[in-house]
């Protein structure tokens, strides 16, 4: 019984000392302010529409990198014949020409007043995605885009225009 009393009194006194200690200690002030950085942060907040077109461009860039990596892997490997390597070089050259054509078409459409433009080739068709300037005249705007692209190209192409809003 004596042991239990000593254990109880020691735990009780320890609890009492700790309680008094934490009550009497002043709370430390925490500085929640964020320090000023010397360099200004230059950031641009894009609207959702611009973000959509930026996402399309990032996806295209990612696809291009993967495509070039796969063609370069064929060129670097000894497992492929010279004919296959030559075809890989032709594929790379054709893809670069297609990408240059896409940039030209995008700049052409931007030149007639559209800010956000995405152009891609799907099989032998051209797909244009842009934001509509005037919701009431979508048909006229689509026709204007199609005629502008056809004037730039020498041959007849199937051109599809989509408006993203």
Describe this structure in words.
This protein is mostly helical. It has a single domain (48-163), classed as Helix Hairpins, CATH 1.10.287. Helix content is 59%, strand content 11%. The protein has helices at residues 2-24, 48-76, 82-111, 138-152, and strands at 117-122, 125-130, 158-163. The chain has a three-stranded mixed sheet with strand order 1-2-3. α4 links the parallel β2 and β3 (158-163). α2 (48-76) packs antiparallel against α3. The radius of gyration is 33 Å and the shape is elongated. The termini are far apart. The mean pLDDT is 83.
Give the helix/strand layout.
Blueprint: H1 2-24, H2 48-76, H3 82-111, E1 117-122, E2 125-130, H4 138-152, E3 158-163
Parallel strand pairs: 2-3
Antiparallel strand pairs: 1-2
Helix pairs in contact: 2-3
Main features:
single chain, 165 residues, elongated, mainly alpha, three-stranded mixed beta sheet, Helix Hairpins
The gist of it:
By secondary structure, the chain is mainly alpha-helical. Helix content is 59%, strand content 11%.
Overall pLDDT level:
83
List SSEs in N-to-C order.
Answer: HHHEEHE
Helix share, percent: 55-70%
What is the CATH architecture term? Orthogonal Bundle
The major β-sheet equals:
3 strands, mixed
CATH homology superfamily: Stage III sporulation protein AH-like
Strand proportion: 5-15%
Query: What is the tally of helical segments?
Result: 4
Assign the CATH class.
Answer: Mainly Alpha
Query: What structural class do helix, strand and pairing data support?
Result: mainly alpha
Question: What is the rounded distance between the termini?
Answer: 83 Å
Uncertain runs with pLDDT below 50, 5 residues or more? none
Strand line-up of the largest beta sheet: 1-2-3
């Amino acid at each position: 019984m004596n042991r239990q009393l000593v254990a109880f009194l020691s735990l009780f006194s320890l609890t009492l000392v700790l309680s008094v200690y934490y009550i009497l200690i002043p709370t430390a002030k925490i500085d929640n302010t964020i320090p000023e950085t010397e360099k200004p942060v230059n950031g641009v907040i894009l609207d959702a529409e611009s973000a959509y077109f930026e996402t399309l461009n990032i996806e295209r860039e990612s696809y291009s990198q993967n495509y070039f990596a796969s063609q370069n892997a064929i060129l670097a490997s000894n497992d492929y014949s010279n004919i296959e390597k030559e075809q890989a070089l032709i594929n790379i050259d054709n893809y670069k020409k297609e990408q240059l054509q896409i940039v030209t078409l995008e700049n052409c459409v931007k030149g007639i007043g559209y800010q956000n433009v995405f152009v891609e080739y799907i099989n032998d068709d051209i797909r244009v995605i842009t934001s509509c300037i005037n919701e009431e005249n979508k048909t006229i705007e689509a026709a204007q885009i199609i005629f502008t692209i056809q004037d730039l190209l020498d041959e007849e192409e199937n051109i599809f225009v989509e408006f993203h809003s």
